[in-house]
Each structure stands twice: as C-alpha cells, then as structure tokens.
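ok, trying the design again with the full structure, not the truncated one.
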C-alpha cells in the first residue's frame, strides 16, 4: 500500500447514508440540533432555493395548537407562529450568555423609567402643598426624618434626586441600547458567516446547482431584512418591559384604571392582528421579487457584451423594471398597512386617554395628582405600545427572509462535506500520482440518463494522457470524478492504491492536484494574490519561475505594475490566452501530483500551446498529466490518447 494511502481513507466524519452522488455526512439529528429544522430526505444535489421557498419549520407544540385551533387559527397561521418561535429560539440561543445581562439592563431601564414617573407624585405634593396619595405622604414623612421640612429644602432634595435618577437612567439606557444593538448585529453577522461557511463546506453537486444570484440575494437582502426585523424586535422587547412597569404603576395608583387601560389597549392591538397575515404575505412576495431583481441583474452583468451585440438591453431592462416595480408595490403595500395600523392605534389610544381621564375624574373621583401621573403614564405608553404593534408587522414581514435563510442553510448543511477532513498537502507527498478508475458510472441528480457508463482508466506515475470526444460526451464529468469533486454513482477511484470513497479522501486528494477548467478565472486583485492564492507561500522567485514555465513571464514583466497589476473583474485586464497562461502558472505553484487541463490551452495559438505542453511534459517527474483537447497537434505530447463517446471510453 502507498504510504499515504490511509490519509486518503481517513479524516473523520461518518456518512449517514451513501448512495453515489447523493451523500449525507451529517445526520438529520445533527442538522436539527444546529438549525432547528429537519431537511427533506430528498437528495442534496439540487438545492437551488426554489421560489417561493417552502420553509420547513418546527411546528408549534401540540398543546398550543389544540388551544389555538378553536379560535380559528388556520394551519398557515400556526405555521407562521411556529416559524416565529423557531426564529426567537434561534436568536435566544445565539445571544447565549449575553442574554441574561441584556435582560437585566432592560428590566433596570424600565424600572428607572417607572421610578422617574412616580417621582412626579412628591413633586406635585411639594408644589401643591398637599400630599394626596399614600406614597407622597410616606415620602414627605421620610424626608422630614432627615430634617428636610421646608418647601425649598424638599424641592432642592427632590430636584437633586431626580437629576441623579436621570443620570443613572441615562447610563443604564445607553448600556441597554448598545448591548441590544450588538446582540442584533452579532446575530445577523453570524448568519452571514455561517451561510458563507456552509457554502464552502457543501459538496460540489449541491453548490454547482445553486443559482449565484439567489445566494447573493440571501446573503445581502434576506440578511438585511432579518437584521432590520431583529433590531426592531429587540427594541420592542425593551419597550414591552417599559410598558409592563408603567402598567404596574397604573395598577399601584388605581387598579380600576389598569383594567380600563388594559381592555382598551388590547382592543387597539387587536386591530393590528389581521394585518400580520398581510405583512407576512407581502414579505414572501418581497423575497420572491427581490430574487428576481438579483437574477436579472446577474444575467445582465454576465452577458453585457452579448446583450449589446444582440441589442438585447431592452429585454433585460423591461424584466428588471418589472421586478423592481413588483418589489416597490409590495413594499408600498406593507408601508401602507403599517401607516393604517399606526393611525388606527393612535385613534384608539386617544379614546383610551380621554376615557381614562373622564372616568377617573367624574366616576372614580381620582385625586388630581394621580390623574396627572396616569395621563403622563398613558401618554408615555402610546409610543412603546405602537412600536410593539408595528414590530409584530415588521417581524411577520421579515419571517419569509428568515425562512429562506434557514432553508438554504439546512440544505447546505445536509450536503456538507466532512468538516473534519484534513487534506494532505501535496508537498508532503511529492512525486507524480498513480490513478485508477474502475467501472465508473455517473448520473446527475434528477436525471435518468447516465452520463458515464463503466468507465475504466489507469494513469501511471508521470504518464501524459490526452482525452478527446464530442461536446457533451462526458469529459468534464469524468475529470470532475478523477479530481475528487464528484463521487461516482458506481465504480471506484484509487489514488496510489488507496480508495477515494469518502469526503475526507476526496478533499485530501483535491489538495494534491491542480485542475484547470475551461474558463480561466482570476479575481479582481493584484496578480501576485491571484497566483499564490492556492499555493503554500511561494517566494517571488518561484512565482516568476512558474510564470516562465507557463509562458506568461514576458507579458507580466511588460505590464506596468508587474506582479502588482490588478487583473480586473474576472481577469478582464488580460486576454483569454493570457488568463489561461496565468492560471497554468498558478497551477504549477501548487506543486501538484496530477495536472488536469480541461481545454485549458484552447485560447492559445498552436505554437504557444505546443510550447507550453512541451514544458509541462518535461516536468513528468513531478506530476502526471491528463488534458482534454480537440486539436490533433496538441495530442502529440500524450503517451496515450483516449476518446470518450456517449459516456464510454472507445479507444485507448
Ligand atoms: N450539473 C449538471 N446537471 C445535469 N446534467 C449535467 C450537468 N453537467 C453536465 N450535465 C450533462 O452531462 C452531459 C455531459 O456533460 P459534460 O460537461 O461532462 O460534457 P463534455 O464532454 O465536457 O462537453 P463539452 O466538451 O461540451 O464541455 C451533458 O449532456 C450535460 O448536459
């Protein structure tokens, strides 16, 4: 056995189920623990976010469902409540140990607000010279124990106490608000980061099936909506605490008033309940139309040149306008319903305040100072209660964004490659690889027709093999299997005698090879960054050497910035042939044991292609080479030429 064989076999991770390309490396129980949701048992290969996304949510506990159903709560409403509870539990879990402290600050802030309001009573007593409540009498008595008897000394003491209270309240509220803000921001940051990681960790069939613009929309728009909703929810939590304390004060002053206020406030809140469903529906539509905007924009940017050449900008523009106007329409409808709710509530609140005043004065004969405090309390309650009602709408509107994020995350986790796989560095092994593929078959997810049928292929160390075949014959699919991106649906891949049959082994194998796809890719970054990106800190000397071998040194030297030249978006600053040569240099810097070129020299003229293949062939003591080409001239460098036809190797 090859000394490095076990490294390919092991690396941790237990497959839960393994059926060719549809593998699961994390159990459903694990996924549930991380996301609060259970992924479908459907294969992960086609995990594109379907729109509208069917979020799978943990349902409400059965006892709650039983309680709510008689009140006409529909299945959809229960589903939405379940989704909200899942979101809330997720937020709570994420806040972790910060939560009790934040809750303490919220409670303290609310209490200080309440005490501040109650301080009006002794003030009123001092100003009017009458202590008409027990609280004022107690406080005045307590002050006279300390010799604070005169009106002036009482007023000064009260002003001093009030200012101190205000200062403490300021500090607590500042602490509370900054904590809540960082809780909310941290939560959405972690969502962004875990999505990003999950994309990186998901297997190739899943990731390649995702639409790039859907991912962009999820990581930007959906997360931004979740952020706005979370921020409002946390602030509403603080407001709710304040409302509770102030209602406590009303209860202290006059329990009957409390009942009155409670009944009328409840009625006002009920006005907003029907709007929740609408807010949720509009949220779903905003998510859907937002994705369309990203999709059209992505297609337009990717096909700029073609769109201009075909005068097709108008088509993109009308699709874009239609999606933008849809989003605007839904947002406008949502804002209108918020405005309606606000106005309805303000009207109801006016009725409450006036009723409380009239009932208190004429029916209950409440003392004037108590009535004054009650009015202050009620006036202060209107804002927070209104905010709580609006938060309900905002959350209902943001829940579809949360559902989309959670669903995408669950799909990605279900397709996660073994997270503990430790790839073996090529430099540690060295020397060209021996590769053996036996009876490999492959069928793409959702397709009935196999792309590859019983393909067997051996590459000896240092061997150079050319692969040709018609378009669609399955060449790229075969290369993806040989490079450990796809697991064959049947058959086996062995590297140096070790079976590549697990995610860990696939990751390990990928770190030992260099793969040059048909479309050479460069980031919008300096050339140096582009070249050393996947290598192990090469020196400038090594970088230039690789550039020489790839036939790229000359034009890099000639460019004004040298290695610091920016390559532009997707390498636009260089021609197709130059990009290919830069990518070959990057591949060489990886010290690969197998070099795979999928028509990676197709943009070069025959002389340059010949030149580069000659130089690569001279390095067969370092790596084996497998290259796809259709040019007869290019095949002369190969020891063997294979031809693939309809998924079968027909000549060797
Ligand atoms: N992700 C995918 N999902 C479903 N089918 C796919 C996928 N990728 C490729 N196919 C199908 O598999 C077949 C082989 O594709 P492949 O890209 O391997 O061919 P190829 O020989 O490399 O073609 P070309 O020379 O045109 O690049 C094609 O019929 C293609 O439609």
């Amino acid at each position: 056995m090859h000394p490095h064989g076990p490294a390919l076999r092991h690396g941790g991770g237990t497959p839960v189920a393994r059926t060719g390309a549809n593998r699961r490396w994390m159990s459903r129980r694990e996924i549930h623990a991380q996301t609060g949701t259970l992924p479908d048992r459907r294969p992960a290969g086609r995990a594109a976010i379907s729109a509208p996304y069917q979020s799978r949510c943990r349902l409400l506990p059965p006892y709650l469902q039983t309680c709510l159903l008689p009140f006409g709560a529909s299945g959809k409403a229960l589903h939405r409540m379940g989704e909200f509870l899942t979101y809330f539990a997720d937020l709570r879990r994420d806040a972790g140990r910060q939560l009790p402290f934040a809750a303490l600050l919220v409670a303290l802030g609310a209490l200080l607000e309440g005490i501040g309001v109650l301080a009006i009573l002794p003030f009123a007593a001092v100003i009017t010279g009458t202590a008409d409540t027990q609280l004022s009498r107690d406080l005045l008595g307590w002050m006279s124990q300390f010799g604070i008897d005169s009106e002036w000394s009482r007023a000064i003491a009260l002003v001093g106490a009030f200012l101190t209270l205000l200062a403490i309240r300021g500090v607590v509220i500042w602490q509370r608000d900054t904590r809540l803000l960082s809780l909310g921001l941290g939560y959405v940051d972690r969502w962004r980061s875990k999505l990003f990681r999950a994309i990186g960790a998901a297997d190739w069939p899943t990731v390649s099936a995702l639409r790039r613009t859907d991912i962009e929309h999820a990581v930007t728009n959906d997360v931004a909506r979740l952020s706005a909703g979370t921020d409002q929810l946390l602030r509403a939590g603080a407001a709710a605490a304040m409302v509770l304390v102030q209602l406590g004060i009303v209860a202290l002053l006059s329990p009957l008033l409390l009942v009155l206020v409670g009944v009328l406030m409840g009625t006002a809140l009920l006005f907003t309940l029907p709007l929740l469903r609408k807010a949720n529906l509009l949220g779903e539509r905003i998510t859907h139309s937002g994705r369309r905007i990203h999709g059209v924009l992505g297609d337009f940017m990717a096909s700029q040149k073609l769109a201009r050449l075909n005068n097709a900008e108008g088509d993109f523009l009308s699709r874009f306008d239609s999606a933008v106007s849809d989003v605007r329409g839904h947002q406008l409808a949502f804002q209108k319903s918020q405005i309606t709710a606000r106005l309805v509530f303000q009207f109801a609140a006016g009725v409450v305040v006036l009723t409380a005043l009239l009932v208190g004065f004429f029916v209950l004969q409440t003392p004037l100072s108590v009535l004054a405090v009650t009015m202050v309390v009620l006036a202060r309650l209107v804002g927070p209660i209104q905010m709580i009602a609006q938060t309900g709408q905002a959350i209902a509107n943001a829940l579809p964004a949360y559902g989309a994020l959670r669903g995408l995350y669950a799909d990605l986790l279900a397709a996660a490659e073994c997270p503990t796989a430790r790839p073996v560095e090529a430099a540690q092994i060295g020397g060209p690889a021996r590769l053996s593929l036996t009876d490999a078959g492959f069928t793409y997810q959702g397709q009935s027709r196999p792309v590859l049928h019983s393909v067997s292929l051996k590459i000896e160390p240092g061997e150079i093999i050319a692969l040709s075949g018609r378009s669609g014959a399955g060449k790229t699919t075969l290369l993806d299997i040989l490079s450990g991106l796809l697991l064959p649906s049947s058959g086996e891949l062995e590297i140096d005698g070790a079976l590549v049959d697990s995610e860990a082994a696939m990751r390990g194998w990928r770190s030992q090879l260099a793969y040059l796809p048909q479309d050479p890719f460069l980031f919008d970054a300096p050339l140096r960054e582009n070249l050393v990106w996947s290598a192990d800190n090469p020196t400038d000397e090594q970088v230039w050497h690789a550039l020489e071998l790839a036939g790229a040194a000359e034009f890099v030297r000639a460019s004004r910035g040298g290695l610091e030249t920016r390559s532009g978006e997707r390498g636009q600053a260089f021609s197709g042939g130059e990009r290919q040569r830069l990518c070959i240099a990057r591949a060489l810097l990886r010290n690969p044991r197998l070099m795979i070129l999928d028509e990676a020299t197709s943009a070069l003229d025959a002389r340059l292609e010949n030149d580069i293949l000659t130089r690569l062939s001279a390095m067969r003591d370092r790596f084996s080479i497998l290259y796809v080409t259709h040019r007869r001239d290019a095949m002369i460098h190969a020891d063997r030429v294979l031809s693939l036809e309809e998924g079968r190797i027909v000549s060797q």
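Keeping the full-length input from now on. The radius of gyration is 34 Å.
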